[in-house]
Amino acid sequence: MFTSERAFSGFAVKDIDEARAFYGDTLGIPVQLMEMGILELTLGSGAKVMVYPKPDHEPAVFTIMNFDVDDVEAAVDDLNARGVATKIYDDADFPTDDKGISRDMGPEIAWFRDPSGNVLSVLKAS
């Protein structure tokens, strides 16, 4: 029978070792190497995310994962201190300030990329 009880999401990266270092060491997400070179991220909610290698990987053209935070500016400062660039958009579609924070299009949000070019965000959703 279909159920969403054990559903999970996943996305591709070009280099699994880079991904393990970025998600585990840089972002501090618990990462486990699974069979066939697949990573399993365990988010604070307990949700699991599968990260799989794809040699001909092309980054998604949309945000693949969002991190809901209490203070976007503090999260951006923390990411920047970890070496993560949050100023990735500078155009009319996504106007952002010097830190890469969009403050005028809904909730405050800042985007950043993983080493494979996938887009992630920190935002104040709640």
What would your notes on this structure say?
The chain is 17% helix and 29% strand. By secondary structure, the protein is α/β, with parallel strands linked by helices. It has 2 domains: 9-53, Signal recognition particle alu RNA binding heterodimer, srp9/1; 63-123, 2,3-Dihydroxybiphenyl 1,2-Dioxygenase, domain 1. The strands form 2 sheets. The chain has a 4-stranded mixed sheet, with helices on one face. A 4-stranded mixed sheet has the order 5-8-7-6. The radius of gyration is 15 Å and the shape is globular.
Q: Mean pLDDT score, rounded?
A: 92
Count of helices? 2
CATH C-level of the largest domain: Alpha Beta
Helix percent reads 10-25%
What about the largest sheet? 4 strands, mixed
Kindly report the spatial arrangement of strands forming the biggest sheet.
Answer: 1-4-3-2
Strand content: 25-35%
Supply the number of structural domains. Answer: 2
CATH arch. level architecture of the largest domain: Roll
Shape designation = globular
Along the chain, the helix and strand elements come as EHEEEEHEEE
- The rounded Rg comes to 15 Å
Distance between the termini: 33 Å
Question: Which structural class fits the helix and strand makeup?
Answer: alpha/beta
- Any low-confidence stretches, pLDDT <50, length ≥5? none
The CATH homologous superfamily of the largest domain: 2,3-Dihydroxybiphenyl 1,2-Dioxygenase, domain 1
Secondary structure tally: strands: 8
